[in-house]
Amino acid sequence: MKTEERPRSPSSGPHVQETKVTRLCKTQKVMTVNGQFPGPTLEVNNGDSLVMFFVKMRMHGVRQITTAWADGPEFITQCPIRPGGSYTYRFMISGQEGTLWWHAHSSWVRATVYGALVIRPKVGDSYPFTKPKRDSVVVLGEWWNANPLDVIREAMRTGGAPNVSDAYTINGQPGDLYNCSTKDTVIVPVDSGETNLIRVINAALNQQLFFSIANHKLTVVGADASYVKPFTTSVLMLGPGQTTDVLIKADQPPARYYIAARAYASAQGAPFDNTTTTAILEYKTAPCPAKGVSSKPVMPSLPAFNDTNTATAFSTSFRSPGKTLVPTKIDDSLFITAGLGLNPCPPTASASTCQAPNRTRFTASMNNVSFVLPSNFSLLQAHHHGVPGVFTTDFPAKPPVTFDYTGNVSRSLWTPTRGTKVYKLKYGAKVQIVIQGTSIFTAENHPIHLHGYDFYIVAEGFGNFNPATDTSKFNLVDPPLRNTVSLPVNGWAVIRFVADNPGTWIMHCHLDVHIGWGLATVLLVENGVGELATLQQPPADLPAIPTQDQTKQAQYIPPHMDLWEGEMYIDLT
User: Fold this and answer.
1) What one-character-per-residue DSSP string does 43-71 give?
2) Which residue ranges does the record assign to the Plastocyanin-like domain (predicted)?
């Protein structure tokens, strides 16, 4: 990380605080880090160790080898940090280079509390491509003309879907096409002839996004902090949580070109924000417009909102740079369905709390289990200390009922059970997971993210996964290494990895509305033999287990909505 002076105490670090922010002609208070929206970019090198003094933060994609206590999601690896408290996250960046990001892991706080994590090669090492002249970060986000926490609280109250966003943003700014936004549109400068690296992050809460730069080709060289075999495209598609590193050559006539992003909306009939966010790629030698003349930048041609063919062509273009160590002999083979559902309301329930179709409330599940966070212990604490009654280890390795997952699903299968069920893996197990989308209520693309691991995406396809025919499609030579897979709409994806990181690791849809509805499960990886295969002891300042009064409070403010102020202290050791 670039710092002029290493801070000596937590009090010198940035603050998580409420800040007045004006967007779309309206000023409102939102949560920020140090008053910045988005938050600061953290820059480190592969091999650096970090010490972060913070109140509730998640380093998305960092593997956290034996340091699961620093992963961040509350009631998964730690209890919430209570008012006046603090917690120091300690971990190492190891074997990862490229772009990740950090964000709040507390309900919809991450709508405004997020930033980039840039991981450069080890000191003395180089990129596997010619070093770019410039290095820019482009973070895509969503903006509501309301407090995002109020938006999700209202949806939780009604049981319906939350209101869609009012704008998308690039580095926190909506851009030229929105009201009251032109003067703050982000400018990305370039010089003719140079080749630059642009790190694109989708930090949106609930929307996959297409991304393009007018008249410029994008050479993809990395994704989710892993290098990939370079390929060229005119459009990217990123699900929330995903990152893509691209090289861009400034080989066009000097001018101003729009950088633009808008929705890939795969759920048929579901409302979505159909606006377009822009920034400007500006050549330094671009001619100035004549006085009084407005010169609009060139606009890229973006795919249609429902262009699944383009999304698929992009996601299936990824390959690792060379032959990989993808597991071939599998110890644990899981088949996990992922999709939405509906919970019928009891006859006595108020209609105002049953706003999903036909007097129901929206839910979601994996293998018909809608995941429920515990409220008194974190899963990792309960596992480490042997506390009974917090979770069960009976998450099913396959759906309880076999059905036509992407067809006309019987209404009897639309309502999942609720539970805090985990799946246990032995250290070193070679794991394959077939993730199968369902058409229950509606089918859509789900960005499925696994904490604590990178995994190989060996195949994806549409319809129901058929082991008799689809296994032949597996790429066991150079599959891409990712931490988030775009599960195709009405389709499936297959991932493989070695369970070499002990802890409790949540696997969830990164559409935040879906994880709130229960589209998640947890993989509990046991300790292996030796220090490097054993979970470290819990830190002395690990947040305490909630008191009875605090647990009562959680009935009114769900435990994933801790909004108390805190500080961040970052050090390299």
Assistant:
1) EEETT-EEEEEESS-EEET---TT-GGGS
2) 16-122, 136-285, 394-527
Tokens of 532: 């490097």
CB 29 within 8 A of CB 19: yes
**Segments in the chain below pLDDT 50:** 1-12, 55, 551-573
User: 238-248: b or e for each residue (b if 16 or more CB lie within 10 Å)?
Assistant: bbbbbbbbbbb
Residue 249 and residue 215 in contact, taking contact as beta carbons nearer than 8 Å:
no
Q: What is the pLDDT of residue 26?
A: 96
Question: How far apart (Å, rounded) are the C-alpha atoms in residues 382 and 365?
Answer: 23
Q: What is the dihedral of CA 530, 532, 538, 541, to 10 degrees?
A: 140
pLDDT of residue 58: 52
| Interval 260-308: pLDDT, tens | 999 999 999 999 999 999 999 999 998 887 666 668 999 999 999 999 9
By DSSP bridging, strand 236-238 and strand 226-233 are unpaired
Contact 382, 351 (CB under 8 A): no
In sequence order, what DSSP letters do the residues of 463-525 get, joined into one string?
SS--HHHHGGG---SSPPEESEEEEPTTEEEEEEEE--S-EEEEEEESSHHHHHHT-EEEEEE
Q: Where are the beta strands (DSSP E) in 345-397?
A: 360-366, 369-371
Neighbours of 431 (CB within 10 A): 21
Instruction: List the structure tokens of 499.
Output: 């369970």
d(CA 227, CA 98): 7
Predicted pLDDT at 569: 31
- CA distances to 110, 391, 480, 523, 573 from 89, rounded to whole Å, are 18, 25, 29, 22, 13
Q: Alpha-carbon distance 159 to 544, whole Å?
A: 32
pLDDT score at 289: 74
Which of 541, 416, 430 is CA-nearest to residue 496? Answer: 430
* Element spanning 210, H or E: strand 208-213
**Residue-level pLDDT at 549:** 55
| pLDDT number for residue 292 | 61
